[in-house]
Write a structure and sequence with these properties.
Distance between the termini: 54 Å
Shape: globular
Strand content: under 5%
Number of strands: 0
Structural class: mainly alpha
Length: 266
């Protein structure tokens, strides 16, 4: 129950919430390990392209287990964001001319990347199921699950440790911690209050920001026509699913107003 100290709900008992919060911690641990190893076994383009298929898995999972409606707009937006993310990443198995390496991605790396994609989709489903849970409890689950798994992976893989980091390393670690926790709080709150398909499409837009930051800080080349097409597809998917979500809310609001009791004067 420590993870659910803040997760008090009138609809679900604390014991049920603690179970699902614990599940999120386990999911984050598996996602951290599988995502890390897939990025080592595969090049970045292949790994990110495979992991970016999670919107499809999460949308289908929301339809199966949370009974969310999937319309044509939602399906099209999900496919657009996956295609756009793949084009931005330009994986080697789809764009061999853009890479000097001719080796094929290993089966283990592909399997781990698919597992990471599945865990990302499952994480969105768990957060949506815990929509009444306090966001800080879910953030704590992420920190414990992903953090412990990351530390264990680092102990196994790395032999050299920096016991006394310099000032620059301390500043970078602090910035990463603040940015990561802020992203988790905002991401959890958004996933609790949005449809799973909408949240998955929005989350997949992180590929665009990652490429922008690579251009700014890592001296990556400016986006060409191919990358620009991918960016347009992802942005189009976000606009499409946002408009569709807004259209769904309008009839619900009208129906709710019609169900309000009418008071007549005597």
């Amino acid at each position: 129950y420590p993870l659910c100290a803040l997760a008090v709900s009138d609809e679900r008992p604390v014991s049920t919430q603690s179970t699902w919060v614990f599940i999120r911690a386990v999911v984050q641990a598996i996602c951290t390990v599988s995502g890390w190893h897939s990025s080592i076994l595969l090049n970045n383009g292949d790994s990110v392209a495979i992991i970016s298929t999670f919107p499809i898995i999460s949308t289908v999972g929301a339809w199966m287990f949370l009974h969310e409606e999937i319309g044509y707009a939602c399906a099209v937006a999900t496919c657009l964001t996956v295609i756009g993310s793949t084009i931005i990443c330009r994986p080697k198995f789809l764009f061999p001319s853009l890479s000097n390496e001719d080796d094929r991605p290993g089966a283990l790396g592909i399997g781990l990347a698919l597992l990471a994609s599945l865990m990302l989709a499952l994480d969105l489903l768990v957060i949506k199921r815990l929509k009444d849970c306090h966001p800080l409890a879910l953030v704590l689950a992420f920190c414990l699950g992903g953090g412990l798994a990351g530390v264990a992976t680092a102990f196994i893989l790395f032999e050299e440790w920096v016991l006394l980091p310099n000032l620059l390393q301390v500043v970078l670690i602090t910035c990463v911690t603040i940015v990561g926790l802020t992203g988790q709080v905002c991401g959890v709150y958004g996933a609790q209050n949005l449809a799973v398909s909408f949240g998955a499409v929005l989350k997949s837009s992180e590929t665009i920001f990652a490429y922008i930051f690579q251009v700014i800080f890592l001296a990556e080349p400016m986006p060409d026509l191919t990358v620009s097409i991918g960016v347009v597809l992802v942005i189009s998917a976000i606009i499409l699913i946002a408009v569709n979500s807004k259209k769904k809310k309008v009839p619900n609001c009208v129906a709710a107003r019609l169900r309000l009791p009418r008071h007549t004067g005597d």
